Structures are given as structure tokens and as C-alpha cells.
Amino acid sequence: MEDGKLTVRAVERALDILLVFTQHGSLGLTEIAEKVGLHKSTVHRLLASLEGKGFLVRDAVTEKYRLGFRVWELSAQLAGQSDDPATLLLPEMERLRDLVGETISLYIREGSERIRIQAVQSNQAIRRVAPIGARLPLYVGASSKVLLAFADDEVRDRIMNDAAWPESVDRGAFLAQLADIRRLGYATSVEEREPGAAAVSAPIMNNSGRLAAALAVSGPSNRLHLEMMRDIAPQVMETASRMGKMLK
Fold first, then answer.
1. Cross-strand bridge partners of residue 197
2. Could you give all domains of the chain from N- to C-terminal order, each with its CATH number?
3. What is the rounded CA–CA span in Å between residue 59 and residue 181?
4. Residues contacting 149, CB < 8 A, separation 6+
5. Which pTM does this prediction carry?
6. For the chain, what is the mean pLDDT?
């Protein structure tokens, strides 16, 4: 039993190392060890295993690691699944990008965070760059508010009553804001999470009427101002509605 626990722990640690690369292109041994909170000797052994299996590649000159071919093989398999939302909804995201001229993102909720699972970058020279895989808090931003506003009451209450919920965010005022979002069918944010950035987001409800994801349009706040977001909100909601009909 003890050997089993050690094996599971090693797997968890190896996965933690891989997840570090969702935010970084390449990292050295010391950097990885700091980010996962493990001794360098332990990380070195795990890196050797991951490199041997092709999940990581080490640059012979810089001695930094980056994701290897096995990860891309897994990604290609995922992309081939017709029910994968990130792949299935991509054409609609591209259509909306061409329509509004701004960056389009697709978010899902995982625990008390939102994850960007797909993005279509704006073609404009000055644009909002949205890296896929980014994890963001649920208490700030248009998509976060959508993911909470249209979540089940139990889920919303659990997240907002968690000890991790920041004291600076008034729960009563936030709940009132979520009620307005449910009434309007969309949410907006201006420089809530990042200076100079704005976003408008709408819920994607699947064929069972359950919240599946949040669709967002984001861009520079001097271009994507409140009046502009109100103007394009119907297009965002219409696109989200079409997307929902594509999901089980």
C-alpha cells in the first residue's frame, strides 16, 4: 500500500511539473523546482523520466526544458474529438472575431478558477492577446461573472463563501451584480483585472439548459468601451446561443 502511495505521489508531482508549462515556454531545473515546491534532486529525477517519455525536451545549450512531442500528440488526439468544445466551437469563434474585430476567448470553470480553453486572436495591430490555458480568478472579469451568474446556486454559494474569496469583494454587492447579469444575459468589465483591457461575455448553455462555458470578446479599453460593448452584446449572445445548440 505504501508503494502505491509513493507511486501516486510521483505521478502527481510529474503532472504538477507539466502544468507549470501552461504559463511558461521554457524553464530551467531551479525555476521548475521553485514553482512546484520540491527539492531539485526530486525534480531532476522526474524531469529525466518525463524527458525519456518525450513529454519534455531539454535544450542542450541553455539546459532549459520545454514541452515535448508527446504532449502535441495528445493534443492532436483531443483536437480530433468531435465533441471537444475547444475544437467544435472554433469556427463560430472565428466568425465572431471577423464580425467584431476583437479577440475571442472561451472559458470554463474549474473549481474556483476559470480556464481559457480556446482563443482566436484579433487581427488588429493593437489587440488583446489571450494565451490558451491561462487560469484566472472567478471574482473579477466579465467571463468570471458569467460563470458565476449562470452557475447552479449551490456552486455559486460554495465559491463565494469559501475562505479564499477575497474580503475586498463585497458579497452582497457582487450578488446584486450577478442578478443584473442574469437579467441582461451578458456581463462587461473595464480594467477590472488588467489595466487597459475590457471584455464583454455571454453564457453558453448546452441543450440540457446547463452552463457549459463563457464566450468573451476582449480588447483595449479605449476601443472596446462600454457603449461599444453594449452594441456588440446581442451578437455575442447570439453566437453563444448557436454554440450552445452544438453541445450536448
1. 220
2. 2-72 (1.10.10.10), 82-245 (3.30.450.40)
3. 48
4. 156, 178, 179, 181, 182, 187, 203
5. 0.69
6. 88
